[in-house]
């Protein structure tokens, strides 16, 4: 029998095929990680380990499998049979797997689980993985997994780009390369031959607190006009160390931004280092929407004489659409489309209905998902389901006439970032779902939306990392960016095993 320390030298057939067309970081470490990225199988019906009639699962094995699925699968993939490569890199006789799981190893990106599991649970988990690796136990087949998961689709998670910091903006260029905005102020193009090329020509970016280089969005007719929209924190020319959110557009020629135009600068510029927003979205008529947070001064959000705590709407060249809700109010900013927001870091057009969905960070609790509509007041800080970070009450009011109720709110906060609607039909059962990321709890929430309501939601991609951005590629794949270490991940659907 082969030694535990020799891993099986086998790759899933589907994975081998994918290697041919998926851009992966050339760096050996991530190639290795890619070899480990594996199928996440899910049950169509909740089942327990007792259903594993072909397997001699003990209670400890089935608990270990459930722990694996809940805590490890987000990074290593759900089907343990595939948790394999050429050999274990980081495990030897003198540093056993249980120690690695318990203590983690920050330089390779493997988290510590000593707060999650007892030593006994850790050893059971390591022993279980050992049994799978040695072939003495089989992982559950699809449809008979231990532990319930209502997800209807199977998928791989693959690291496409690594070596980033906080990848905030992600776009797909027609030649197959990726445009990536890294928050500290670097714009990259990840080429089809897997090189990270820095793009020149950015304006001065105020990288402070939650500010920096933020969202990216291609014009809906990018193929014709080449416009790229960029959100960032600007620093004031006249008042040092103050700033706000700005929107610019530019074209890309030979990895340099050219024809740059600054379309909007949020006002006032202040020294506050948080709540910059910012996400950009276009609607089907070509209007551009973007969000600016309350800039740490909550009373901003209810006043229409400043840019903060608002969704704004402009034409694609930065003009005010004549039917914006406050164009006739001379005290109000005419770019405002909706107000009473705290800090929106996710916005997505529902392609079926044309509704603009958005989520925002609440204080302690009270994160919201809203459908953003023209001229409407979303209530912050007059009404909220959250409380202050120090536990004091902001307001007892959760509803008031003239203020919108969220479609959904979260107590405690999940810290939402990134939002997209699933397009196409590559992911069976997820068609048209709303995906929304959690920075704080490292997962993506999949919501089924019907008639302006969320009728079902579940966590997918658990423990994937701090989710910053979710995007659908033009060929309808889900891409996710995570922070610390910053990576771009691709979710690849897998057929329910026929092998
Ligand atoms: C946030 C992502 C993440 C999570 C969650 C995670 N790991 Fe890891 N783990 C890594 C990375 C990155 C590595 C190093 C590269 C590699 O082996 O993929 C690693 C390495 C390992 C290795 C060593 C692999 C080798 O070849 O030496 C083992 C074993 C392992 N993890 C087990 C687990 C178990 C068990 C869990 C769940 C309790 C878990 N990991 C959860 C990211 C993660």
List the helices and strands and how they pair.
Blueprint: H1 13-19, H2 28-36, E1 39-40, H3 59-76, H4 97-103, H5 119-134, E2 154-164, E3 167-172, E4 178-182, E5 186-190, E6 196-198, E7 213-218, H6 222-225, E8 228-235, E9 243-253, E10 256-265, E11 280-282, E12 288-292, E13 310-314, E14 336-339, E15 344-349, E16 356-360, E17 367-372, E18 408-410, E19 416-421, E20 434-438, E21 443-450, E22 453-460, E23 466-472, E24 478-483, E25 486-494
Antiparallel strand pairs: 1-2, 2-25, 3-4, 4-5, 5-6, 7-8, 8-9, 9-10, 11-12, 12-13, 13-14, 15-16, 16-17, 17-18, 19-20, 20-21, 21-22, 23-24, 24-25
Helix pairs in contact: 3-5, 4-5
Provide an overview of this structure.
- The protein is mainly beta.
- The protein has a domain at 13-150: Orthogonal Bundle (Cytochrome Bc1 Complex, Chain D, domain 2), CATH 1.10.760.10.
- The protein is 12% helix and 31% strand.
- It contains 6 helices and 25 strands.
- The strands form 6 sheets. A 5-stranded antiparallel β-sheet has the order 1-2-25-24-23. It has a 4-stranded antiparallel β-sheet with strand order 3-4-5-6, with no helix packed on it.
- Strand 5 (186-190) and strand 6 form a beta hairpin.
- Helix 3 (59-76) crosses helix 5 (119-134) and helix 4 crosses helix 5 (119-134).
- The chain is globular, with a radius of gyration of 24 Å.
- The two termini are 24 Å apart.
- The structure holds heme C (HEC).
- Heme C (HEC) binds at residues 33, 36, 71-72, 74-76, 85, 88-91, 97, 100-101, 108-111, 113, 125, 463, 465.
């Amino acid at each position: 029998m082969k030694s535990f320390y020799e891993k099986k030298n086998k790759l899933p057939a589907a994975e081998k095929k994918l290697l041919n067309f998926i851009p992966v970081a050339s760096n050996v470490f991530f190639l290795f990680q890619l070899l480990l990225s594996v199928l996440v199988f899910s049950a169509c019906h909740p089942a327990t380990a007792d259903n594993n009639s072909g397997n001699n699962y003990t209670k400890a094995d089935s608990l270990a499998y459930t722990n694996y699925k809940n805590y490890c699968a987000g990074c290593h993939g759900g089907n343990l049979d595939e948790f394999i490569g050429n050999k274990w890199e980081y495990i030897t006789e003198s540093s056993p797997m249980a120690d690695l799981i318990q203590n983690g190893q920050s330089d390779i990106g493997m988290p510590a689980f000593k707060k999650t599991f007892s030593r006994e649970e850790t050893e059971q988990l390591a022993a279980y993985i050992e049994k799978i690796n040695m072939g003495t136990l089989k992982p559950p087949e699809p449809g008979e997994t231990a532990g319930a998961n209502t997800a209807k689709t199977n998928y791989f998670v693959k690291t496409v780009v690594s070596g980033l910091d906080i990848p905030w903006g992600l776009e797909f260029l027609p030649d197959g390369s990726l445009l990536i905005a890294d928050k500290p102020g670097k714009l990259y193009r990840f080429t089809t031959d897997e090189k990270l090329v820095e793009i020149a020509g950015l304006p001065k970016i105020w990288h402070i607190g939650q500010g920096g280089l933020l969202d990216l969005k291609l014009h809906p007719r990018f193929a014709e006009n080449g416009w790229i929209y960029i959100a960032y924190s600007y620093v004031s020319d006249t008042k040092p160390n103050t700033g706000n959110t700005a929107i610019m557009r530019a074209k890309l020629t030979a990895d340099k931004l050219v024809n740059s135009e600054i379309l909007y600068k949020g006002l006032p510029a202040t020294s506050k280092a948080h709540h910059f927003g910012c996400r950009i979205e276009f609607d089907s008529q070509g209007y551009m929407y973007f969000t600016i947070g309350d800039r740490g001064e909550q009373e901003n959000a209810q006043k229409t004489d400043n840019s903060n705590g608002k969704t704004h709407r402009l034409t694609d060249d930065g003009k005010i659409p004549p039917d914006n809700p406050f164009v006739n109010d001379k005290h109000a900013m005419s770019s405002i489309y909706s107000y009473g927001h705290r800090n929106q870091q996710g916005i997505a057009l529902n392609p079926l209905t044309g509704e603009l969905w958005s989520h925002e960070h609440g204080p302690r609790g009270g994160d919201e998902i809203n459908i953003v509509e023209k001229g409407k007041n979303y209530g912050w800080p007059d009404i909220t389901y959250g409380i202050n970070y120090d536990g004091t009450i902001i307001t007892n009011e959760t509803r008031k006439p003239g203020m919108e109720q969220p479609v959904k709110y979260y107590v405690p906060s999940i810290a939402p970032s990134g939002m997209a609607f699933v397009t196409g039909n590559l992911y069976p059962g997820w068609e048209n779902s709303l995906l929304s990321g959690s920075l704080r709890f490292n997962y993506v929430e999949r919501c089924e939306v019907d008639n302006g309501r969320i009728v079902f939601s579940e966590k997918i991609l658990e423990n994937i990392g701090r989710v910053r951005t979710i995007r659908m590629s033009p060929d309808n794949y889900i891409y996710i960016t995570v922070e610390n270490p910053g990576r771009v991940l691709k979710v690849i659907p897998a057929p329910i095993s026929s092998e």
